[in-house]
């Protein structure tokens, strides 16, 4: 297949501070860890092209989770596949862990009876239980039943499956499961490897997500560098065409690493970009926008349609998007907007009021439907409900959005709802990209706080082709 010539715009779409190698395809982050003062990111990578295939475990290192140095791939594949293997660093005195060895006793875990042999992958980081045994979880499926099977080992060589896999119907393959402790009310039986949550657990089985946008194959690691924080990684695929990726010569980025913790009310996990991202501030590349809004009159909130009780947030947002005038909202940000607003990506809130209990329903949306004039771009609306009592919070809600060329990564209500999307503007590029605050609702919305800072990328990012995007001053729009 001939590679079409690249365009200047292709380089302008490369990210400045989201991780991506100089060229070719990447997907899942793997095996992230901290060792001897160095962070290690392993990830799926095609060293031969910008489409999936020829996958190796690529390797990059950093001392701050922001500036990364590419190392040669750590592990190349050998048959068989869909089994679980191990590899060890050849030289533990090397903080960069550049050489890895596969022992001859691989594989250490093969799919057993009742396990789909062609869908058995993505193990978690192993951990030691109170009994001293190692444990890890592997994703699989049984027809449409998604499964996560827990395995135990005393020596990291011989593994025994738990008889009670975690499961959920009609979900399909459980890819990239994760397992880590957080305080909840309930009881965990270590002998039976079974956890029974307290019936009053607030989030129950509501299907909460890390991210409601283009965010997949996530993995966490425990950062033992000092704070013992849990850090979340995730892959953001492209939304343009395969032909576009081949022409660009690259595809896929990693989301910014996010600190992950349990909300103070215990209702859900919340996320926030790691503090090291702040070190990028002060430069002239990309933007980091923090806004705090206050709704003046929540009494103008539109009534919640009971038919939406069985719908997901994305369906509601698609029906009531950024251009659909409402009572309270839509209000938020137009990012990567052209002067004439022909191109813009909307990140916004909308507030409804239930008729049965009088409570407000807060919806957060990312609407890239007008993000690009180019044909063939996948531009779905992304949305999630925000678990916040906006009335008891004085009508206030906050939004933080990271804007990085072709990535718009947003954190609503201080990390309770997160949405990442990929956009490919043709006009709103570089110093022609604009940022607006907007309100298409009947109720006035006050902007209590608005801070826009520019991010400066490290030298290695510039080597990787990231172009400078100058963000002009922020015009503030009144209620439309």
TrEMBL record:
<dbReference type="GO" id="GO:0004553">
    <property type="term" value="F:hydrolase activity, hydrolyzing O-glycosyl compounds"/>
</dbReference>
<keyword id="KW-0378">Hydrolase</keyword>
<dbReference type="GO" id="GO:0005975">
    <property type="term" value="P:carbohydrate metabolic process"/>
</dbReference>
<dbReference type="InterPro" id="IPR013320">
    <property type="entry name" value="ConA-like_dom_sf"/>
</dbReference>
<dbReference type="Pfam" id="PF00251">
    <property type="entry name" value="Glyco_hydro_32N"/>
</dbReference>
<protein>
    <recommendedName>
        <fullName>Cell wall invertase</fullName>
    </recommendedName>
</protein>
<feature type="domain" description="Glycosyl hydrolase family 32 C-terminal">
    <location>
        <begin position="286"/>
        <end position="448"/>
    </location>
</feature>
<dbReference type="InterPro" id="IPR001362">
    <property type="entry name" value="Glyco_hydro_32"/>
</dbReference>
<dbReference type="InterPro" id="IPR013148">
    <property type="entry name" value="Glyco_hydro_32_N"/>
</dbReference>
<dbReference type="Pfam" id="PF08244">
    <property type="entry name" value="Glyco_hydro_32C"/>
</dbReference>
<feature type="region of interest" description="Disordered">
    <location>
        <begin position="460"/>
        <end position="480"/>
    </location>
</feature>
<dbReference type="InterPro" id="IPR023296">
    <property type="entry name" value="Glyco_hydro_beta-prop_sf"/>
</dbReference>
<keyword id="KW-0325">Glycoprotein</keyword>
<dbReference type="InterPro" id="IPR013189">
    <property type="entry name" value="Glyco_hydro_32_C"/>
</dbReference>
<feature type="domain" description="Glycosyl hydrolase family 32 N-terminal">
    <location>
        <begin position="18"/>
        <end position="82"/>
    </location>
</feature>
<feature type="compositionally biased region" description="Basic and acidic residues">
    <location>
        <begin position="460"/>
        <end position="470"/>
    </location>
</feature>
<dbReference type="InterPro" id="IPR050551">
    <property type="entry name" value="Fructan_Metab_Enzymes"/>
</dbReference>
<feature type="domain" description="Glycosyl hydrolase family 32 N-terminal">
    <location>
        <begin position="83"/>
        <end position="181"/>
    </location>
</feature>
<dbReference type="InterPro" id="IPR018053">
    <property type="entry name" value="Glyco_hydro_32_AS"/>
</dbReference>
<comment type="similarity">
    <text>Belongs to the glycosyl hydrolase 32 family.</text>
</comment>
<keyword id="KW-0326">Glycosidase</keyword>
<feature type="domain" description="Glycosyl hydrolase family 32 N-terminal">
    <location>
        <begin position="182"/>
        <end position="273"/>
    </location>
</feature>
């Amino acid at each position: 297949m001939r590679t079409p010539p690249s365009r200047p715009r292709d380089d302008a779409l490369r990210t400045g501070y989201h991780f991506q190698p100089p060229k070719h395809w990447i997907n899942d982050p793997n095996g992230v860890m901290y060792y001897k003062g160095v962070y290690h990111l392993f990830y799926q990578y095609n060293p031969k092209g910008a489409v999936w295939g020829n996958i190796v475990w690529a390797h990059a290192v950093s001392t701050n989770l922001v500036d990364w140095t590419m190392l040669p791939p750590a592990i190349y594949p050998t048959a068989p596949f869909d089994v679980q293997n191990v590899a060890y660093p050849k030289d533990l005195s090397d903080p960069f862990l550049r050489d890895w060895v596969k022992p001859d006793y691989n594989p250490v875990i093969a799919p057993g009876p009742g396990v789909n042999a062609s869908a058995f992958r993505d193990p978690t980081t192993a951990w030691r239980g109170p009994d001293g045994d190692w444990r890890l979880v592997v994703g699989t499926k049984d027809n449409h039943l998604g499964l996560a099977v827990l395995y135990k080992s005393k020596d990291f060589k011989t593994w025994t499956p738990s008889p009670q896999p975690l499961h959920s119907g009609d979900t399909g393959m459980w890819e990239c499961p994760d397992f880590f402790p957080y305080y909840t009310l309930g009881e965990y039986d270590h002998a039976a490897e079974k956890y029974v949550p307290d019936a009053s657990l607030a989030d129950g089985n509501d299907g909460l997500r890390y991210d409601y946008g283009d965010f997949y194959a996530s993995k966490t690691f425990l950062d033992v560098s000092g704070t013992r924080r849990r850090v979340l990684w995730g892959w953001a695929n492209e939304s343009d065409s395969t032909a576009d990726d081949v022409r660009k010569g690259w595809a896929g980025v990693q989301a910014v690493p996010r600190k992950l913790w349990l909300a103070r009310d215990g209702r859900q996990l919340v996320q926030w970009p790691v503090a090291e991202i702040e070190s990028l501030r002060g430069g002239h590349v990309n933007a980091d926008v923090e806004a705090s809004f206050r709704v003046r009159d929540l009494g103008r909130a539109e009534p919640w349609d009971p038919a939406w009780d069985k719908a997901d947030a994305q369906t509601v947002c698609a029906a009531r998007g950024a251009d659909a005038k409402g009572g309270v909202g839509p209000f938020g940000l137009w990012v990567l907007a052209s002067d004439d607003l022909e191109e813009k990506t909307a990140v916004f809130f909308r507030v409804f009021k239930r008729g049965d209990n009088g409570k407000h329903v807060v919806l957060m949306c990312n609407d890239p439907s007008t993000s690009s004039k180019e044909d063939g771009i996948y531009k779905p609306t992304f949305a999630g409900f925000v678990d916040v009592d906006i009335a008891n919070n004085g009508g206030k809600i906050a939004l933080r959005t990271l804007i990085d060329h072709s990535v718009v990564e947003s954190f609503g209500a201080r990390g309770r709802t997160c949405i990442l999307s990929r956009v490919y503007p043709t006009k709103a590029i570089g110093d022609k990209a604009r940022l607006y605050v907007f309100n298409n609702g009947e109720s006035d919305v006050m902007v209590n706080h608005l801070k826009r800072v520019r991010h400066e990328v490290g030298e290695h990012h510039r080597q990787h082709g990231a172009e400078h995007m100058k963000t002009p001053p922020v015009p503030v729009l009144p209620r439309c």
